[in-house]
């Protein structure tokens, strides 16, 4: 960066936090941009066979003395006669009234994928894709900026996600795809088969990191004849994002350029009748038109360019 050059400011909603693989528990980390309605935190791991209890705390700061307020305390307990979950709030050093759930959707020796979904007035929790509980806020969500994980738990991955931007036809919980625990990244260029083509409602998800000196990034969807009716290309030289036709014609996407060196990104492509909708870093950016028959004939996803991929899901 040259002297005096100022980087474009990025709103908090555009800043994705890198996933964390195999953190050592106890584990405390800052939540980039804090929490707000629409954000999700995903926790993937296992409960040890001899587990007594663990807790996931959404804290207002990370000081040791005085102890920070805990807006949301999620505390599964396995060692009691009837395993259960406690949710509570710590305010000015005092615990508030406990909220108790007598059933426990987690089991000793079992793996899990927990989604914490933050709404305007309450947090909802799903375990392995099923609704588990909801907990109404007692402190403002805007105060939460720290995640703490403690106790008897093996954590494989922690993810910080924006809510799925495609609202039509959505269920109570957005789809949460597991990370690849401990993966050092997928080699690029890479290719992934689409043996059944694409159909309405299917979502392609790519998560990764932009390299330090990027040149371009290209995502192609190829048909049975190896033609690419869908090409998405990001050019770092002129900071443009465009759909490219099979004949090389570019149609620029009128949106902020959200790929930045050494920053994480998330690309979502939602298949719907008549084409594909695009979102980048949780922001819906537009669509490209493609007939249903053309979508069904797509057989391959190819990714190339100056990125390191951590997740490809379709």
UniProtKB/TrEMBL annotation:
One of its GO terms (cellular component) is cytoplasm. Residues 27-161, 190-314 form the Galectin domain. It holds the Pfam family Gal-bind_lectin. It comes from the Eukaryota. InterPro entries: ConA-like_dom_sf (IPR013320), Galectin-like (IPR044156), Galectin_CRD (IPR001079). Signal peptide: none annotated. PANTHER family: GALECTIN, GALECTIN-12. Binds lactose. May participate in the apoptosis of adipocytes. This is Galectin. It comes from Phyllostomus discolor (pale spear-nosed bat).
């Amino acid at each position: 960066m040259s002297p005096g050059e100022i980087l474009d400011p990025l709103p908090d909603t555009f800043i994705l936090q890198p996933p964390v693989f195999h953190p050592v528990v106890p584990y405390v980390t800052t939540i980039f941009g804090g929490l707000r309605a629409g954000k999700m935190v995903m926790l993937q791991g296992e409960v040890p066979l001899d587990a007594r209890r663990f807790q996931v705390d959404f804290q207002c700061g990370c000081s040791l003395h005085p102890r920070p307020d805990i807006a949301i305390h999620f505390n599964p307990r396995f060692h009691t006669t009837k395993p259960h979950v406690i949710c509570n709030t710590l305010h000015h050093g005092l615990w508030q009234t406990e909220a108790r759930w007598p059933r426990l959707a987690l089991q000793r020796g079992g793996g899990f994928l927990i989604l914490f979904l933050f709404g305007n007035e309450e947090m909802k929790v799903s375990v392995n894709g099923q609704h588990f509980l909801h907990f109404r806020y007692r402190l403002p969500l805007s105060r939460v900026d720290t995640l703490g994980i403690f106790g008897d738990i093996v954590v494989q991955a922690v993810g910080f996600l924006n809510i799925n931007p495609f609202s039509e036809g959505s269920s109570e919980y957005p789809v949460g795809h597991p990370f690849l625990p401990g993966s050092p990244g997928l080699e690029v260029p890479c290719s992934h088969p689409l043996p059944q083509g694409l159909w309405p409602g299917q979502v392609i998800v790519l998560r990764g990191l932009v390299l330090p000196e990027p040149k371009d990034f290209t995502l192609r969807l190829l048909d049975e004849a190896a033609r690419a009716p869908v090409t998405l290309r990001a050019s770092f030289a002129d900071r443009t994002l465009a759909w490219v036709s099979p004949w090389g014609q570019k149609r620029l996407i009128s949106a902020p350029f959200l790929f930045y060196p050494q920053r994480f990104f998330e690309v979502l492509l939602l298949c719907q009748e008549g084409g594909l909708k695009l979102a980048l870093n949780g922001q819906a950016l537009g669509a490209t038109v493609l007939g249903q028959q053309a979508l069904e004939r797509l057989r391959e996803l190819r990714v190339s360019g100056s990125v390191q991929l951590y997740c490809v899901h379709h």
